[in-house]
Amino acid sequence: MISRIFLVSLALFSGSSFAWAEAPQGNSCVTCHLDLWEEMKTSVHSQQGIYCNSCHGGDPAQTTKELAKAPGTGYVGIPDKKQLVETCGACHANVEVMNFYGVRTDQLARYKTSHHGKKLFGEGDTRVAGCSDCHGYHDVVAVSDPASPVYPLNVPKTCDHCHGNEKLMSRYHLPSDAFKLYQTSVHGKALFEKKDLSVAHCASCHGSHGAVPPGVKEIGATCGKCHVNEKKYFLESVHAQPMQQGKFSECVSCHGNHGVQHADKRLYREACVKCHEAGSTAAKKGGEIFEVLKKSDEELRSAEKLVRRASIEGIFVEEEMGALEEAKTNVISMAPLQHSLSIEKISELYQKFEGVARDIQTRVLRKRQALRWRKISLVPLWIFVGIMIVALGVQYRRLKKDHEGKGPRG
Amino acid sequence: MVKDTLRRWLAERFDLEQIKGPLQAQIEKPLPKNVSWFHTFGSMSLFLFVSQVLTGILLLVYYRPTPGEAFESVKFIMTKATMGWLYRQIHAWGANLMVIIVFLHMLRTFVTGSYKKPRELTWVFGVMLFILTLVFGFTGYLLPWNQLAYWATTVGTEVAGAIPGAGEWIKTLLRGGESVSGETLSRFFVVHVIVLPWAVFFIVLFHLVLVRFQGIATLEPVGQEKKPKPGEGIPFFPHHVTKEGMVFYLLLGLLVTLAILAPFELGEKADPLQTPFAIKPEWYFLPMYQVIKYFPKLVGIFIVSLAPLFLFIWPFIDRSKERHPLKRPVAMTIGILVVLSLLVLGMMGYLSESKKTCPV
Amino acid sequence: MREKGPVDNPKVSRRDFLGWLIRGGLFTTLAGMAVPALSYLWPVTRQGPIGGMVEVGREDEIPVWASKKVVLGGSALLVVRTPKEFKAFSAICTHLGCIVFWESLRKEIACPCHAGFFDLEGRVSW
Questions:
Q1: Across-strand partners of B31?
Q2: Exposure of C34 by Cβ count < 10 A (0-12 exposed, 13-18 middle, 19+ buried)?
Q3: CB atoms within 10 A of CB A285
Q4: CB distance A410–B239 less than 8 Å?
């Protein structure tokens, strides 16, 4: 019995939109509003047999409009925002109802903590986003369905519907360029161009149902969800305390937020001076770190070039390539480590890297030298060959002379 | 001292006089006066054969003849084994030089008319040796199991398969299957390492016995050869041998120099799923490779197989009694034409399917 | 008084010198061929030329639940010892190619670059 339910649920929750629900028989809503049924039939609700009256009220068994929408039927028509949220919540926040579907039930509760929810329930502001603004209404599909407006690839555009509207946003003194910035960011490029679904999008940092912009203190927690090591090291750095005091916006202060670019060591030149005076101890420390990073980048590049050249010269460099991997790891590890802003730690890693790079260089040069020795050995070889040829030649001439000297005597 | 003790020990057991006589005769046998520097090619061929056998034995110690290990074992020889690189390069260069030197020896024999009566059989054995040298090259080429080897062998066996009638059968027999595989490697390995060395050894033996028995040809016409009297001519040992010693050292120096200055690359491991661009057979097969392009498949095969046949029966076709090159204009012309066409066809084969242009 | 021949002459004559030179040269040539050949034949490693088996460490070198990094065939490998067996993984992280290490506290393979974790089957774990 349980396995049957499981199989049925599996089939129903396959998340594919090809399974269209069959139009319910004897449902007057559908009979009259056939165009709306067209929207509904792909939705996950209609596949579960949840039809118009579940949200709009009314009696689908009645055949006339008056009777179907009569006062006692609970007919609501198009619900207003608050009604809508509460209607969705009537099922989706009810554990007993959702138990069968195995879907979580905290969305409404979270929503009420969000800025959207607070504005809606607290101030009655219906311009904020409600369930249907993000999930759709008639054509709701699972989040994992690529057609869903909250499928990771679609989330930024969905949020942008409102948060890109300058007039709307200006009422709340919010910027409206987040989406544009996001598109240029490293996260946006990964999402839209590389189709990387695991990358950060609006909901990853701001939350989905409980959307609250990360405050200064929580930014680290937000970025740190994925960038674990960077956060770990940052908390060891001198910036951790000002962050606690709310004076420093953890990651955003240096990296930005929506438009975050690929981190480059140039940040040490550009970001530090935003707070520290150029020439100050702090800025100088940043400069030191910059130098170490620069040196390691250059040395890594020259090691790679050396190995590549050697392989073109015909030297077998498999072991050196393996060592290059190790060296590269050390350099890449500097990226999270540098957030500790500890020149000691970074230098330690640099020493390790340098050891490997130097070892690679020694080995390659030794192999080159061995090849050179081979070529040099040709000199004594040819001297020897020359002596032998001359000696044999002299011998030959002597033998011939003797032989001819012996003459006809034999 | 040691020599005397040894001699006494042997003399008590064997009739040394019986051996000493002929041995002495052989050593002191006078060679005709026309024996020149060009007459060292023969012993250089032998030297190269011995060198190949010796370096081959050394390589065999570390080489593994399976597709999974062949390439890696050659890499091991070239990188880890002490002086392994030297032996691999000497073996590879030795193979190429052997083809050249054997050919030059054949050419010298042709020019001096030494193949004529009574030495036709010596020539026939010699042509056999030349062909076996080429087969040595063909089979050995596959053994490193790199891209070059794999695909050159594919092309080569494909050509064999085009022989009418028995072609497919021959191709399958050569490859040990439908395509070049580990089976092909095994077969080529067996031929290269056991079958050919012994075949060449015995044929060289016959060849040398005949040469020694019949003596080196003079430049006098057939039937009018004058045996050099003792006192005339040059003794084989130590005179001619000393001359050969000089060429030997030169060749040795050349071999090692080529091994160091122009080493053969190992390249990439064979990938049956990826054919490199413009695969060609080794240089000594290029003339044949080029000729085949000009004729429809069957005609091409026919023409190409005419060449070795022609070589074999040449002493029986050329009935003229003259040996001196200047007295044989027809033969010399044919010879020059053949050599020229080999060079030209070879060059064309080398330049074809590439963007290279003629360096001339 | 007979002429002084080369035998009487105490100084080594040019003829003898040449003979010795040639003989010495031939001996050198033979030695020069034999000696490298012998050094070539002396085994380079404890095993033969290729994989099949290469010794990367001893059992008592790696305690249980510890690891050892090994470079083999031009690439890095990670050897981990569990109570039951030894496991070997490619040490190249599948994300950006960093070299992973064994995190003995979590009993997982970890990547120092972006904190990726892998279980003992080599699967990505969170």
A1: B234
A2: exposed
A3: 17
A4: no
Instruction: For helices B329-351 and B84-111, give the axis angle rounded to 10 degrees.
Output: 150
Contact assignment for C76 to A326 by CB distance below 8 Å: yes
Q: Do B235 and A410 touch (CB under 8 A)?
A: no
| pLDDT, tens only, A344-391 | 888 998 998 999 999 999 999 999 999 999 999 999 999 999 999 999
Specify whether the CB–CB gap between A142 and A135 falls below 8 A. no
Distance separating alpha carbons of residues A126 and A103, to the nearest angstrom: 27
Domain contains B51? yes
Phi, then psi, of C72 in degrees rounded to 5? -145, 130
Residue B189's domain comprises 37-269+277-349
> Which residue's structure tokens are 């690679």?
A360
* Residue bearing tokens 């249907």: A132
Laid out side by side, the sheet with C124-125 consists of C101-103, C108-110, C117-118, C124-125
Higher model confidence: residue A353 or residue A76?
A: A353
Query: What is the model's pLDDT at position B47?
Result: 96
Q: Is B20 a domain residue?
A: no
Chain A residues near residue C112 by CB distance under 8 angstroms: 229, 329, 333, 336
Taking the domains of chain C in order of start, what are their residue ranges? Answer: 59-125
Name the DSSP letter for residue C91.
-
Chain B residues touching residue A376 (CB < 8 angstroms) = none
Helix (H) or strand (E) holding A221: helix A219-223
Specify the number of domains making up chain B.
1
Which residue has 């502001």 as its token pair? Answer: A125
pTM: 0.74
The answer to whether the Cβ–Cβ distance between A332 and C96 falls below 8 Å is yes
Contact C75 A394 (CB under 8 A): no
Taking alpha carbons only, the member of B111, B50, B123 closest to residue B322 is B111
Mean pLDDT taken over chain A: 85
**Cβ atoms of C76 and C91 closer than 8 Å:** yes
Q: Is the ipTM of this complex over 0.90?
A: no
Q: In terms of CATH, what superfamily is C59-125?
A: Rieske [2Fe-2S] iron-sulphur domain (2.102.10.10)
Strand-pair partners of C18:
none
- pLDDT per residue as tens digits for the range A237-248: 888 888 777 777
Cβ-nearest to A389 among B79, B231, B250: B250
Please report, for the domain that includes residue B72, its CATH number: 1.20.810.10
pLDDT band at B189 (very low <50, low <70, confident <90, very high): very high
Which pLDDT band holds residue B132 (cuts at 50, 70, 90)? very high
Pairwise CA distance, residues B133 & B131, whole Å: 5
Cβ contact B30:B230 at 8 Å: yes
Q: What is the pLDDT of residues B299-346, one digit of tens each?
A: 877 888 888 999 999 999 988 888 898 989 999 999 999 999 999 999
| Nearest beta carbon to residue C99 from set A329, A388, A394 | A329
- Peptide bond connecting B238 to the previous residue in cis, omega within 30 degrees of 0: yes
User: DSSP string spanning A309-324?
Assistant: HHHHTT---HHHHHHH
